[in-house]
Write the structure tokens for this entry.
Amino acid sequence: MPNFNMTEKRHTMSVQDPSERRSNFREVVLGYDDEAAISEAKRCIQCKTRSCTRGCPVGVKIPEFLSLVAEGKFEEAYKVIEQDSALPAVCGRVCPQETQCEGKCTRGIKGEPVGIGYLERFVADRHMASGRAEERPRSNGHKVAVVGSGPAGLSCAGDLAKRGYEVTIFEALHLAGGVLVYGIPEFRLPKAIVRREVEALADLGVRIVTNAVVGKSLTVGELLGEYGFEAVFLGTGAGLPRFMNIPGENAKGVFSANEYLTRINLMKAYEEDAATPIFPARRAVVVGGGNVAMDAARCARRMGAEVTVVYRRSEAELPARREEVVHAREEGIIFRFLANPTEILTDGEGNVTGVKCVEMELGEPDASGRRRPVPKAGSAFELEADCVIMALGTSPNPLIGRSTAGLTVKPHGEIFADEGGQTSLEGVFAGGDAVTGSATVILAMGAGKRAAEAIDAYISSRRS
Ligand code: FAD
Ligand code: SF4
């Protein structure tokens, strides 16, 4: 049993210097070394309440893995995490730990919580560096199709493959990974990590067909019919951007965060010889306050712009991960809280020249329990800008709902599914953002795992 480390403060992670990183796309946070990881893990007091595990949406056995890290048994620690999390190297980097495991950690009551996310990342990176390949399980002869290769699709495919299913993933884009490749930037989640997760699935025998838009190139009905799949999992995400519907929103220089981030992350617009370069803004205004807004703002900064984030609530309500907000500030991003755009201003040729905004104040709580922002009379002001990026949330793309007869879809496009992912159609399961609307990686991954279990039970029941 390790000696607990009751006195030490949480070990900080070293990061790339802000003055350097604001002009490159390399990873910002640099990771623990063995010594720091062991010492940080010893800060865990192995409390009986296991409040950290209860704060984790997929119930990772946190005290167990921390105890193994404290003993220097890193690969054993990986095996513990792997039982519940399909993508630990990703989750360790992007999960909102402050509202989940670390938010519930007993050591956080009187000081700083154990660095659970940093340690999860450390263990997963150590495992990846070891180059251990997954063993391919024996096929059970049953075929399942997975539509979409984001966290939901990847974890569903992985769990089914481990149970012996012959899984094929159909992905609309030319690369697998969903938001992990086209949305979250390289400086937060290196794409080599996503690639290795995808390769690990290939080791398990999962086939990945890219450039295949289900609902256009082929349909869910065809997958279940002539292609011979016994079940289909829909993990198609929520990639349809929302706009404000204010005057000037069609001007040249207005982007959805999805388009802006896809051009930069998937199409690598930041590279000098990029095939699809992006408009080089001098002054960018990013509208929104979530992770997507932070990512768009920090990308625009790296592309050379001076960036202002406009958010209609106060700093306390910012939904983005705390670490991203700290990093954004360090990189020189300016925040205008309690403000909302009312018009995009343009020159005679339809180019963006600025954003007209109004100041807001917080009124009575709305349905979400948060205080509703209301405009302050006579408070209009203007911000100069040649680029505006709208990061206001997304909805599921309507394509699958429209092209699949009998699939029940909610008014905002979310596919209707129960806890196990069963949709209104026999043999068709769904999970992740496609069901919940835009949420988090860990929730999507958990939904994919639960659906794999339900699909296994469904196919097994047809066999007996
Ligand atoms: P997605 O990741 O969206 O994957 C869906 C996949 O399905 C895509 O690859 C898409 O191309 C494919 N697809 C769609 N339609 C079809 C079709 N008809 N045929 C074939 N393929 C199709 N969450 C966090 O926890 N932490 C963060 O820090 C964080 N940051 C984020 C930053 C950004 C910029 C964005 C956009 C999201 C962020 N999120 C974050 C949210 C998180 O990424 C999502 O909740 C998660 O990726 C949802 O996973 P998914 O598998 O349901 O969908
Ligand atoms: Fe360790 Fe914190 Fe979990 Fe307690 S709550 S077991 S201290 S990680």
